[in-house]
Amino acid sequence: MKELKEELTAKMHSEFxxxxxxxxxxxxxxxxxxxxxxxxGTTMKEWCGFYGITPQQALKYKDYWRKLSEK
Length: 71
Fold this sequence. Notes:
Structural class: mainly alpha
Strand content: under 5%
Number of strands: 0
Largest sheet: none
Helix content: 55-70%
Number of helices: 5
């Protein structure tokens, strides 16, 4: 087997990272999939805490994830 001569560069590593906002968006999606779109405020706040996001961040993406779940 031929060995690779190049190591991963910083530019190549950047392909494996996501922006802070994308990370929040994905955490919100996970939170909604667990808590459910019809959960009460207390449940939503609890699950937001587990995922490290604020209720405002979760609500920002609620419609986005709801629409995706309906497809």
